[in-house]
Specification:
Distance between the termini: 47 Å
Radius of gyration: 22 Å
Number of helices: 14
Order of helices and strands: HHEHHEHEHEEEHEHEEEHHHEEHEEEEHH
CATH topology of the largest domain: Aspartate Aminotransferase, domain 2
Strand order of the largest sheet: 2-10-9-8-7-3-4
Structural class: alpha/beta
Number of domains: 2
CATH class of the largest domain: Alpha Beta
Oligomer: single chain
CATH architecture of the largest domain: 3-Layer(aba) Sandwich
Shape: globular
Strand content: 15-25%
């Protein structure tokens, strides 16, 4: 006899984001994968970050003698200043903001769940999401015994996502009494952009219903609509009386700065008591990666004009690719719906008009990972994408729009990304045959 695992572990399944990669790793043939299932950016980091990364043994580095100590739980002062400098470079005031360094944006998400949501039986307050929502909110909530609820947006035939009405959102708030609303202004997974007018409307809902507003700003500045940069930090009591004191943002080195593997994030708020308790909670984790903190801290001294040029370069790179690939998808697969490339680095591909009623995106994703292959210039390739069903939190028995939807991340090299529409179309034909 052997001891049993916990109920949580026994029921744990891989994230929808990582599933294809895990299954592909089991293959034994020579097929190679173009991996667009995860947001693992392949571009180089900002030059100032790279300079520190390549010079850890210089005298000015705290690690030049080979000693790597813990930092304060709240993080290095310079690293916190880096995140505040980034927010300020987008034109937002950082006066009265409190920053805490976390192990990537993921730990910041977990602190939010612990800090504003309650367990069942203890005045439970679930977390309110707008589906399709970044799937790790659900995974982290399950890990720590919290619950998520959601309102669902719709992907229309023209590629636009429509948000639920204010009445629908408020009806669910009154029914479920959530602790907070999560918004992702430059959205993952949909690529939808929430302009400042939309952010203000959502902030008004939070104030009217006395809940926190959590803004996941991992992709801030990656938008392609020609509008102004939007952020929770652009909403003050002047725009929405009562919003101050309920604002939290989740920040990360991963996306805009291309430092996914640094695993450095930040939890920023204008509530000192929330900040103090979050730091107290994280003392159990000791501190975030010290070397990663130092490397990312290089941005603390960067001029705003230089940072704005960086944003411009990143936008230009992604926008060109997004326009090209979404157009090619529509040409190669007549009837396919592809979300409009308005923000972030993702497209949602919906094949509901070109498949039969038995189609399941998860099965297709597994086919691509385990069996599918396409010969391109003498090389056998397959495509890894993320099934979107896991990005929805729906009542039991509800029809899941993700059944025919998949997320594609624009993270491989430009040369590999150019192959994605053809790979997808060919693999879909194979699977349907």
């Amino acid at each position: 006899m052997k001891p049993e695992m916990s109920i949580h572990f026994n029921g744990r399944k891989p994230s929808a984001i990582r599933l294809a990669q895990l299954k592909f790793a089991e293959r034994t043939d020579r097929t190679k994968a173009v991996n667009t299932a995860i947001g693992n950016v392949s571009l180089p980091v900002h030059p100032s970050i790279a300079q520190r990364m390549f010079n850890l043994n210089k005298k000015e580095s705290p690690f030049h003698k080979g000693v790597v100590k813990y930092t304060a739980t709240a993080g290095m002062a310079e690293t916190n200043e880096a995140f505040l400098n980034i927010i300020a470079s987008s034109g937002f005031s950082t006066a009265g903001l409190y920053s805490q360094i976390t192990n990537g944006g993921s730990q910041a998400m977990e602190m939010v769940l612990l800090g504003v949501c309650g367990k069942a039986g203890t005045g439970e307050k679930p977390l309110l999401l707008i589906d399709a929502a970044y799937t790790n909110y659900n995974a982290l909530a399950a890990r720590i015994g919290r619950r998520t609820i959601s309102v669902t947006r719709t992907l229309n035939e023209n590629g636009e996502f429509s948000l639920p009405s204010v009445d629908e959102i408020e009806a669910l708030i009154k029914k479920e009494n959530p602790g907070a609303l999560v918004v992702i202004p430059y959205d993952n997974p949909t690529g939808q952009f929430y302009n400042q007018k939309t952010m203000i409307k959502l902030a008004e809902i939070c104030v009217r219903n006395n809940i926190w507003m959590i803004s996941d700003e991992a992709y801030r500045e990656l938008f392609y609509t020609g509008e102004q940069t939007s952020s929770i930090w652009g909403i003050t009591d002047k725009e929405v009386p009562g919003i101050e004191g309920r604002r939290i943002s989740i920040e990360t080195s991963s996306k805009v700065w291309n430092g996914c593997g640094l695993r450095i994030g930040a939890l920023i708020t204008d509530r000192k008591d929330f900040h103090d308790r979050s730091v107290a909670e994280c003392t159990a984790d000791l501190c975030a990666n010290a070397i990663g903190q130092y490397i990312f801290g290089a941005l603390a001294e960067e001029k705003h004009s230089d940072l704005k040029e960086w944003y411009k370069e990143q936008r230009a790179y992604y926008h060109k690719m997004l326009i090209s690939l979404t157009g090619e998808f529509r040409e190669l697969i007549p009837g396919v719906i592809v979300s409009n490339p308005d923000a972030s680095i993702y497209s949602v591909v919906d094949v509901r008009n070109v498949v039969d009623d038995n189609f399941n995106a998860l099965d297709f994703v597994l086919y691509c990972a385990q069996k599918g292959k396409v010969d391109i210039n003498g090389e056998e390739l397959t495509l890894l994408v993320a099934p979107l069903a896991g990005f929805y939190s729906l009542p039991e028995g509800a029809v899941n729009p993700g059944r025919t939807q998949m997320r594609i991340a624009y993270v491989e090299s430009a040369e590999k990304m150019a192959l994605v529409p053809k790979l997808f179309a060919s693999l879909l034909n194979q699977y349907m045959d």
